[in-house]
Write a structure and sequence with these properties.
Elements lengths: L5 E5 L2 E7 L6 H15 L8 H24 L3 E9 L2 E8 L20 H8 L2 E7 L2 E9 L12
Antiparallel strand pairs: 1-2, 2-3, 3-4, 4-6, 5-6
Keywords: ATP-binding, Kinase, Nucleotide-binding, Serine/threonine-protein kinase, Transferase
GO molecular function: ATP binding
Protein name: ATP-binding protein
C-alpha cells in the first residue's frame, strides 16, 4: 500500500486522496486518513457529542466501503474525500466493474453481510458509478448540523 496524501483547497471545496493497493491493513489506514482529514477540517471524534457521533459514523462508513472493496473487488485502489459546504463525499475506487448489491435477507444477528444496510441507514445518499475498467462506490454525509441534526438519523 502506498500513500498518496493530497489536500487541496479549491474555494470552499477541499479534497484528500489516498492511493491504495492490496488489502493488508488498508481498512485501518483509510480510517486513520479519514479521521485526520476530518480533524483538519474541524471535526474531531473527541469534540462535542454531536460532532463525535458524526465522525464515528463516517469512520464506520469508510470501514464498510473499504471492507467491501477488499472482500468483493480485490481491494480498493483509491480513497477520495471531498468536503464542501458542510457536506462530505467519500469515494472508494476499485478495479471490479460489478456494482454493489444487497445479499439475500439474512439474520441481522449474524455477523457479515450488513454493509449496504449500514450505508443506507447512516449516509444521506450512496451509489456507484463506472470509472475506467472498474467503479467508484460513493456516499455522502452532512457534517454540519442542519434541520434534524447531522446525517440521516432523526
Amino acid at each position: 500500500m502506498s500513500t498518496g496524501l493530497g489536500g487541496q483547497a479549491q474555494g470552499h471545496t477541499q479534497t484528500r486522496r489516498l492511493a491504495l493497493f492490496g488489502t493488508k491493513g488498508v481498512v485501518s489506514r483509510c480510517r486513520d486518513f479519514t479521521e485526520q482529514a476530518l480533524a483538519d477540517w474541524g471535526w474531531r471524534a473527541t469534540g462535542p457529542e454531536e460532532e463525535h457521533d458524526v465522525v464515528e459514523d463516517v469512520l464506520l462508513l469508510v470501514s464498510e466501503l473499504v471492507t467491501n472493496a477488499c472482500l468483493h473487488a480485490g481491494g480498493p485502489e483509491e480513497l477520495t474525500l471531498n468536503h464542501s459546504g458542510g457536506q462530505l463525499r467519500v469515494e472508494v475506487a476499485d478495479a471490479d466493474p460489478r456494482r454493489p448489491r444487497r445479499r439475500a435477507q439474512r439474520d441481522l444477528a449474524q455477523p457479515g453481510g450488513h454493509g449496504l444496510i449500514i450505508l443506507e441507514r447512516l449516509a444521506q445518499s450512496w451509489g456507484s458509478e463506472p470509472r475506467g475498467s472498474g467503479k467508484v462506490v460513493w456516499l455522502e454525509v452532512r457534517l454540519s448540523p442542519g434541520p434534524g441534526g447531522p446525517g440521516r438519523r432523526p
